[in-house]
Amino acid sequence: MSTPTRNYGVKLVRGPFVRLEPHREHCANEGELAHWVASLRREDPSLRLAADLFSGAGGMSLGLEQAGFRVVFSADHDPEAVETHAHHFGGMAVDWDLADADAVERVAATLRAVGVELLAGGPPCQPFSKAGRSGIRDRVRRGLRDPHDQRRDLWRSFLEVVRLAEPKAVVMENVPDMALDREMFIFRSIVEELEQLGYGVQGRVLDCRAYGIPQFRQRLIIVALRNGQVFEWPAVAEQAVNVWNAIGDMPEVEGGWRPAGGANGWTDYAGPVTAYQRLMRQGILGAESARLYDHITRPVREDDAIAFEHMDHETRYSQLPESAQRYRTDIFDDKYKRLDENHFSRTITAHIAKDGYWYIHPRQGRTITIREAARLQSFPDWFRFAGPPSAAFRQIGNAVPPLLAKQLGECLAVQLGKPAVAPSSSRQTGETLALWFAGRERLAVPWLKAQTAWQVVLAEMLLDRLPTLSAQLVWPSLSSWATPEAALAGAEDLREVASWVGRDDRVDRLLEIAAHVISDGGALASPLASSPAEGASLGADVGRDGAEEKAPAAGKSGHHAETAASVPRTVLDLALLVVPSASGDGEEPVIAGRGLLRVARRFFGDEQVLDRQNRLTDGRIAVSRLIGGADSARGAHLGLIELAASLCTTGTPACGECPLRESCEEGSATT
């Protein structure tokens, strides 16, 4: 670790502060909006109207308009983003807090009055406590809403607008973390509520690189169609676009340089070279074609300039000469990152408003400019951003790439023109699976109906991947060791039973785990555990004297990831699923292994579910859609595991016996 020996100052350069006039068709209130929309419909009766909530600067809006929709309403709670949106789009652009129930009802009434068909938005989706999840789950189950609960999360505000406005189509955008949570609680709740409102729902994690955007940026997209049609996702672009394809035409500038003319100043521009650059310059004519606006960035400190000189796109901050380091390398190993001109940009985030060290220009000793950041997000060069440079960077980082929104909009326009069909329902599928599982007497995986979590651990570690008949024959004897205490007390008998199927070599490790569980008061630690939420407790099922125990804090002795007495995450997940905690508020993790992806791929007819890179995203999304988010979800999940092991196996599945055959893409075609 190095310590800085010099202090370097940097000249403060403020602004320019961009002010944008409202669009010539801007509407100040609902009355003006209704009058304007009526005039639009007289000119084009087939016009499709859209609204954009949590709109930011308008990346989604711009793409939808390029796809043929007309965005007539937007809302955000960032004044500068609202100013940007109001400048570029007609209709109403409002700074309303959608956490406020009155604002939600006003928005919904406005959209319903003018006949908005498509509602788009990217509401923040914050994680919930287990107590909060329990309450929401109960409200969803009973079909209740909280329109006047001002503390509800913003995704619930968005769904409340959907419920009241009843648009024909809904598009929600969010970071993929929402679909990577172990329980996928928010995603499943959103799907469940939209289905209750009569929509057919699909979800997928889209990688912007695959759609002609020069940036590694993944986004979870949820599409809901009232006509029940299965949404057909945009086709992957034939050719990728790298950083230099996107910004290589822009002239060199020094960090901190500002053109004459303030906000109206420009940089001389020679013209586009690549197809992507020409796309970004479309619509810029006359004298403007030789001007490039907002090609400005922060000043560069003297020591930063020295550091930048030592870097290429592979250099980590910790690899810089000690004299060029001013941060602790054990904490800021990747503090600086130069972009690779022959590859994609890293994700442009709102953090770029605070510093640009993750976005150092591939050839110049500075961070990227506002216009370069906008290009990497696929904003065209004529699109300006209100406020100071920090506000522009923030708006760019928060935006949906317009080019992605355009392709989604084009697909939506096609889908809205199709006739209505009965929408598929996760709730119906889940209830069918749960009912089938409950009535099934002889299971291929008999410990799916175990009475204690320890029985699941025992079976998974001794019987996993055995032929079905062997597992069924051994399970009755093995299930008698219902607790870790019983396993230790009957160790020799346990070893003998395990030898019947050639698994006696696994007993020693299992006994170590049993001793560890007992000494730790009933808690099981996963080798992947990194926080209390990542571990799991078997509560009263394995605790001493039958007392329910809580999982200890991360880092407690015996809970290190490398301990030999830990239980694999996959085993823990199944134990939690089979035997929930006594309090009833434990997680029900979405499991994507055990053949479940195979079932999901066959059911939806979607090969992407099995793609190696998408198993933890699209694969788990597909599984969650099969099990639903209602009270039947746990039974449905267990039924799906049993289905994969018994009927929907590799090779030739027994489609004629499958409870899902009528809804299955592959099964219905073979029966």
Task: Write up this protein.
- This protein is of the alpha/beta class and 671 residues long.
- Among the domains are: 243-400, DNA Methylase, subunit A, domain 2 (DNA Methylase, Chain A, domain 2); 427-670, no CATH class.
- Helices cover 37% and strands 8% of the residues.
- It is built from 24 helices and 11 strands.
- The strands form 3 sheets. Strands 3-2-1-4-5-7-6 form a 7-stranded mixed β-sheet. It has a two-stranded antiparallel sheet with strand order 8-9. The protein has a two-stranded antiparallel ribbon with strand order 10-11.
- β1 (49-53), α2 (59-66) and β2 form a beta-alpha-beta unit.
- α2 (59-66) packs across α13 and α15 (453-463) crosses α20 (569-578).
- The termini are far apart.
- 48% of the residues are buried.
- Residues 1-6, 147-152 and 525-564 have low confidence and may be disordered.
- Keywords: Methyltransferase, Restriction system, S-adenosyl-L-methionine, Transferase.
List keywords for this structure.
DNA Methylase, Chain A, domain 2, 24 helices, about 675 residues, disordered N terminus, alpha/beta, two-stranded antiparallel sheet
**Tell me, what's the shape?**
globular
Helix content: 25-40%
Spatial strand order of the main sheet = 3-2-1-4-5-7-6
Model regions low in confidence, pLDDT < 50 over at least 5 residues: 1-6, 147-152, 525-564
Residue-averaged pLDDT, rounded? 85
Using only C-alpha atoms, the radius of gyration works out to 28 Å
The helix/strand class is alpha/beta
How many angstroms does the end-to-end distance come to?
A: 67 Å
The number of E-state strands comes to 11
Percent range for β-strand residues: 5-15%
Number of helices: 24
Largest sheet: 7 strands, mixed
Organism: Geodermatophilus poikilotrophus
Region (Disordered): 535-562
Keywords: Methyltransferase, Restriction system, S-adenosyl-L-methionine, Transferase
GO molecular function, one term: DNA (cytosine-5-)-methyltransferase activity
